[in-house]
Design brief:
Layout lengths: L1 H9 L10 H16 L7 H21 L16 H4 L7 H16 L8 H17 L2 H6 L1 H14 L4 H11 L1 H4 L4 H5 L5 H6 L2
């Protein structure tokens, strides 16, 4: 895996699938697997190279984070990201960048985390963006939005299927298709139904 690591690290950060973030996640996963299985998958020197590469990625996302909490598609430009931003870039590229970065950070040791406020701002942006985006837009961009659920599940130390299964079990009224008013037993009283929100 040392050779593979060298190949992943040597290219510019912007290269690769999903704005270069799959390389970052793969490197973080490799370190985690190496540690989990007692070492031997990669050399100590390679592990150090990976950790330095990931620390560099962390520093770039800290410097490039937008005021709204999202990470831009050109996160690899660091503090120059705003000045170098492509104004015609489709909105889903921010979903890609923010979701993927939150995914690798969720499996990273704390030493690689940006300040907690940066993580919280990114998560809040992703949640808000998902809530405000029309369902048909999410459906058309599902692969990008799937990273929202996965990232948030990883931070909860679970997986989306595990979380969803537990949630459905504890919320049977949702499975039955009941409205909030029907769930509260006030379907005929509009005042009570609206005050429930």
């Amino acid at each position: 895996f040392d050779f593979l690591t060298d190949r992943l690290i040597e290219s510019h950060r912007r290269r690769g699938v999903c704005l270069g973030t799959h390389r970052i996640y793969s490197l973080m996963a490799l370190v985690r697997l190496n540690d989990e299985f007692g070492g031997g998958l990669i050399s100590d020197e390679t592990k150090q190279d990976i950790m330095e590469f990931l620390a560099g990625a962390r520093d770039l996302i800290v410097a490039s984070q937008d005021e709204d909490g999202s990470w831009p598609p050109n996160w690899y430009d660091g503090a120059e990201a705003l000045a170098k931003a492509d104004p015609s870039a489709p909105f889903h590229r921010r979903v890609i960048s923010t979701g993927h970065h939150l995914e690798w950070l969720a499996i990273a040791p704390e030493e690689l985390h940006p300040p907690r406020v940066s993580i919280l701002r990114a998560a809040k942006w992703m949640i808000q963006n998902t809530l405000e985006t029309p369902q048909e837009t999410i459906d058309a961009n599902y692969t990008y939005y799937s990273h929202v659920g996965n990232a948030l599940a990883l931070w909860r130390k679970t997986s989306p299927p595990e979380f969803w299964t537990k949630w459905r079990t504890s919320h049977p009224e949702i499975e039955a298709g009941l409205t909030p008013a029907e769930r509260s037993g006030t379907s005929g009283n509009t005042d009570a139904a609206t005050s429930d929100h």
